[in-house]
Amino acid sequence: MDIYEALYTTRMMRRLRPDPIPLDTQARILDAAVRAPNGGNTQRWHFLAVDDPKLKGQLAQLFRQARAVEYEKFSSGMGPMAVAAPGVDPTAHAENMRRIKGSGNYLADHFEEIPLLFFVFAIDDLGGANIYPAIWSALLAARAEGVGGVMTMVLRNCEDKVNELLGVPVEEGWKMSAMLALGYPRGRWGVAANRLPVQEVSSRNHWDAPFGVEVPQPLWPPQDGTETVLTAVG
Fold it and tell me: Which InterPro entries match (predicted)?
């Protein structure tokens, strides 16, 4: 797969089929993840795979409880996604969150059917500087294998119970960074169309100074087999 195809079409997939993911596929996904850059090559990460049906059932209950807590915070205007980002139309933001909640509802309702969960843990991670490149590498590798996934931090709302279920040695400093739900997607891959263009979220040399070029449409795939001609501005 072309690297740009992977970069442009890897998106969060919450509607997943229950078909099991072969062990060698899982190994390739994690082998790509551990090649990610990390500060000082300290590799202070641990990936815990969960595919036991009974354990997934217990985690499903916690996930639904944790998600209820998350949306209670959201409805009261709290949390990072409650308010639209600067320059984003509040109505469009509300519609986007409505769609995300809908697909999230599907994930929660079918949690027991998710074939594979990867819990990602780290020690002294400096705000995620080391672990999130590894997570993104895992998602890109999964895309190359035809496996979809979504990263969620919702279970951190009941972190202690998750740690107890999974036997995490928290006394050593391990802390949950995120969980990846992985499976073969029910939907289709595609380029995210609801992104603000480069020139609206970028600047050069000084905040709000023009970036220097306008990008009128996604640069992959080339339209009609030809590359998009970019217009210099500023």
Answer: Nitroreductase (IPR029479), Nitroreductase-like (IPR000415), Nitroreductase/BluB (IPR050627)
